[in-house]
Amino acid sequence: MKSVKSLKLWPIGLALWCCACQVWGTEQKTPQQVQYLVYGAENPPYQFSNPQLKELGLATVGIVCRLAEEIAREAGFQILSLEEPARRLKRSIASKRYQRWISYGQRAWENDPAWQDHHFSKINLFSFQPGVVTRADRRLEIRSLDDVADKVVVLIRGFDYGPVLSQLQKLGTRLEYAEDSYDALSMLEMGRADVYLEDLRRARFVARARQLEASMAADNAFNFAVLALPAREVAMVMSGDMPSEYVMAMNRALERLESDGRLQQIVNSY
Questions:
Q1: Closest by CA position to 234, among listed 208, 263, 205
Q2: Rounded to an integer, what distance in angstroms lies between the CA atom of residue 161 and that of residue 231?
Q3: Looking at the 3D structure of the chain, how many domains does it have?
Q4: Residue 167 lies in a domain
Q5: 226 with 127: CB under 8 angstroms?
Q6: What pairs with residue 199 in β-bridges?
Q7: Could you report the per-residue pLDDT of 74-100, keeping only the tens digit for each?
Q8: Residues 207, 134: one domain?
Q9: Is residue 154 located within the same domain as residue 114?
Q10: pLDDT of amino acid 158
Q11: DSSP letter assigned to residue 265
Q12: What pTM value is reported for the model?
């Protein structure tokens, strides 16, 4: 259902909560600037585009965008957002195309040689909760990966599923790939897949958005279930060339966001 990608997100009520990632200054002293790297524009609810805001030059919104804005504001920095498709952005990071940047990534990446030169925040931003989405009328009972061995499972092309992917392959599960969450849900609707393996926050957000666009009752077409897998923690990532005083300032800013409840408030607003 490609047409829903140009979502009119205002009716969802989230635009009132979303702050666009932008450069902002002060009258007395210009703050130091860091770059905020956006993994493409269609990764709701973490980073995604809002066509109605694009005309104002405020195109990218979402949980990570708001957190990046708040952390930078607390630390006294400007941020300049730069967007590339996810796979291309990872290549740009590996080639050190950008300097003094912030973004987000899985806590497990700290042990990946490709990311060991970068800084990870001391505090996690949120976690991905592995889950499954199925058509409500199929009444499938799925609680573990073993339950999908004989099913057709749809994954998102280019996403890092970690050890889950190898487990699915060992089970002999038939895998299909979608370009994004909207396509994946469409594949379920059309019967091209039985199960969509996804972070539940993202899956529920996209399902609500699609159904509101079609004037349907939210979440009534799909069932959502938690998988018996550990949640995957997500942290803020700062480039290896980030000055140590910047890293310390942003970690302190994130600690303040956590202590006063703003961190969880932003995450919960989606």
A1: 263
A2: 12
A3: 2
A4: yes
A5: no
A6: 130
A7: 999 999 988 888 888 989 999 999 999
A8: yes
A9: no
A10: 80
A11: H
A12: 0.79
What is the C-alpha separation between 150 and 161, in angstroms, rounded? 19
What CA–CA distance (Å, rounded) separates 51 from 59? 7
- Shared domain for 118 and 166, answered yes or no, is no
Are residues 179 and 236 both part of a single domain?
A: no
pLDDT classification of 50: cutoffs 50, 70, 90: low
Phi, psi of 224 (to 5 degrees): -125, 130
Residue 8 clears pLDDT 90, i.e. is over it: no
Q: What is the 3-state secondary structure (H, E, C) of 26-71?
A: CCCCCCEEEEEEEECCEECCCEEECHHHHCCCCCEECHHHHHHHHH
Written as one letter, the residue type at 103 is S
CA 40, 44, 47, 48 dihedral sign is: positive
**Which pLDDT band holds residue 160 (cuts at 50, 70, 90)?**
confident
Q: Identify the domain containing residue 69 by its residue range.
A: 10-127+232-268
DSSP H helices, the chain, are 51-54, 63-75, 86-94, 163-171, 181-190, 200-213, 244-259, 262-268
Residue 31: what pLDDT? 67
**Are 121 and 56 contained in the same domain?**
yes
Minimum mean pLDDT among 48-52, 79-83, 133-137, 249-253: which range?
48-52
> What does the H/E/C string look like for 71-89?
HHHHHCEEEEEEEECHHHH
Quick one: 64 and 123 in the same domain? yes
Q: For the domain that residue 197 is a member of, what is the CATH number?
A: 3.40.190.10
